[in-house]
Design goal:
InterPro entries: HATPase_C_sf (IPR036890), HATPase_dom (IPR003594), His_kinase_dom (IPR005467), PAS-like_dom_sf (IPR035965), PAS_4 (IPR013656), Sig_transdc_His_kin_sub2_dim/P (IPR011495). A hairpin with a 2-residue loop joins β9 (272-281) and β10. The protein has three domains: 9-126, PAS domain (Beta-Lactamase, 2-Layer Sandwich), CATH 3.30.450; 128-203; 206-351, Heat Shock Protein 90 (2-Layer Sandwich), CATH 3.30.565.10. Helices cover 45% and strands 21% of the residues. The chain is elongated. α5 packs antiparallel against α6, α5 (176-200) runs antiparallel to α7 and α6 packs parallel to α7. The chain contains nine helices and twelve strands.
C-alpha cells in the first residue's frame, strides 16, 4: 500500500524560498505581476543590489532601474499568460558608471498548489567574460592566419628567388657535373615551392589528399613537362583526409618520386606515363608512384643512394612507413606503405 504524507503548502513554499536564497546561480522568483518574491544571494551579489530592497519590489524597479527593459517585461507577461516561453533571451544590462554586462535569461512558469497563484522562476547567466574570451580567441586566430599568409608569401618569393639564382648559375658554369648539381638543386627548390604553394591554399585545417595531389602534380607537370603529348602525369586517390603536417611529408615524397621518374625513366624523349596513387583502409595506407619507362638498372651497383632516394627514405621513416621498390614491367613502382603493427607486437606493448 502506497501511503504518502502530503506536504503543507506553507512548508513547501518555505522550502522553495530557502533553496532559491542559497542557490549558487542568480535566480529570481516572481509573481504574476512581475513582483520579486525572492532572490538568490548570488543574484544580489552579482548585480550589487541590497537584499532588503528586493522583496515586494517590481522587477523593473530593482537597482537604479536597469532591469526596466520593455522587451523583457513583455516576454515575462506573455510567459505568465502561457502564450510564450523565455529560453536563452539575451540582453545587455547597462548601469551608470559600470561596464555593460551581457546576460542570458530563461523563465519558467511553475506549477503551484493554487491554480490562481502564478510563480515565475527567472534564471540569469552573465556571459560577458565568456564572450570576451571567445572574441579574443577569434581575434588571435584571425591574426595568426594573417601572419601565416604573409609568411607563406615571403617563403614563396624567397623560393622563387633561390630557384632563379640556381638556374642563372647553371647557365654560366662550364662543368657539366656542376651544371647537373645546380639543376638538381633547382628541381629540389621547385618541388618545395610546389608543396608550399598547394598547402597555402589548404589553410590550417585538414587536407583532402586527392585534390591536393592533383593540384601538386599539375604544378609539377606545368613546370617540368615540356610536351604533355609525350609524357602524362595522372593521379588516383580515395577520399582520404589528413592533417597539414602529414600532407607536407606526403607531398614531398610525391614530388621527389615524380621528379626522379621525369629525370630517369624516359631518356631520349620516350613517351610514357607517370601515375600517383593513394589508398587507405583504417590505419593502413599506401602511397605509390609508378611509371612505364625503362625500368630499374639491371645492376644498380652498391653505390650510395641519391639525394632524392635519401629524402624519400627519411620521410618514410618519420611517417613510420616502409619504402618498397618493384619492377612494374615495364617501368618502376615505388610505394610508401604504412601498415598496422603485428598482433604479437601490439600485445607485447599492451602488456
Amino acid at each position: 500500500m502506497d501511503i504518502r504524507t502530503p506536504v503543507h503548502p506553507e512548508a513547501a513554499n518555505s522550502l522553495m524560498l530557502a533553496v532559491i536564497a542559497s542557490s549558487n546561480a542568480p535566480i529570481l522568483l516572481l509573481d504574476g505581476d512581475l513582483t520579486v518574491i525572492a532572490a538568490s544571494t548570488s543574484f544580489l551579489r552579482a548585480f550589487q543590489i541590497e537584499p532588503a530592497s528586493v522583496p515586494g519590489r517590481p522587477l523593473a524597479g530593482l537597482g537604479a532601474g536597469e532591469w526596466d527593459v520593455p522587451q523583457l517585461g513583455s516576454l515575462l507577461r506573455a510567459t505568465v499568460s502561457g502564450h510564450a516561453e523565455i529560453d536563452a533571451y539575451e540582453m545587455d544590462l547597462r548601469r551608470a558608471g559600470q561596464e555593460v554586462r551581457h546576460l542570458v535569461l530563461s523563465a519558467q512558469k511553475l506549477d503551484y498548489f493554487d491554480a490562481d497563484t502564478v510563480r515565475l522562476l527567472l534564471t540569469i547567466s552573465d556571459v560577458t567574460d565568456a564572450r570576451l574570451r571567445e572574441k579574443l580567441k577569434d581575434d588571435l586566430l584571425r591574426e595568426k592566419a594573417i601572419l601565416l599568409q604573409e609568411l607563406q608569401h615571403r617563403v614563396a618569393n624567397s623560393l622563387q628567388i633561390i630557384a632563379s639564382v640556381l638556374m642563372q648559375s647553371a647557365r654560366r658554369v662550364k662543368s657539366e657535373e656542376t651544371r647537373g648539381h645546380l639543376h638538381d638543386a633547382h628541381n629540389r627548390v621547385m618541388s618545395v615551392a610546389a608543396v608550399q604553394r598547394q598547402l597555402a591554399t589548404s589553410r590550417l585545417g585538414d587536407v583532402h589528399l586527392r585534390a591536393y595531389f592533383t593540384e601538386l602534380c599539375e604544378s609539377i607537370g606545368a613546370s617540368m613537362i615540356r610536351d604533355h603529348n609525350q609524357l602524362s602525369l595522372e593521379v588516383s586517390a580515395d577520399e582520404s583526409v589528413t592533417g597539414a603536417d602529414v600532407s607536407v611529408s606526403l607531398g614531398l615524397v610525391v614530388t621527389e618520386l615524380v621528379i626522379n621518374a621525369l629525370k630517369h625513366a624516359f631518356p631520349g624523349h620516350r613517351h610514357g606515363k607517370i601515375s600517383v596513387d593513394y589508398q587507405s583502409c583504417g590505419a593502413e595506407w599506401t602511397l605509390s608512384v609508378s611509371d612505364d619507362g625503362i625500368g630499374m638498372p639491371v645492376d644498380p651497383g652498391s653505390g650510395r643512394p641519391g639525394l632524392g632516394t635519401s629524402i624519400v627514405e627519411a620521410i618514410a621513416k618519420q611517417l613510420d612507413a616502409r619504402v618498397r621498390i618493384a619492377d612494374a614491367n615495364p617501368g618502376t613502382a615505388v610505394s610508401i606503405v604504412h601498415a598496422r603493427a603485428p598482433r604479437e607486437f601490439d600485445a607485447r606493448n599492451a602488456a
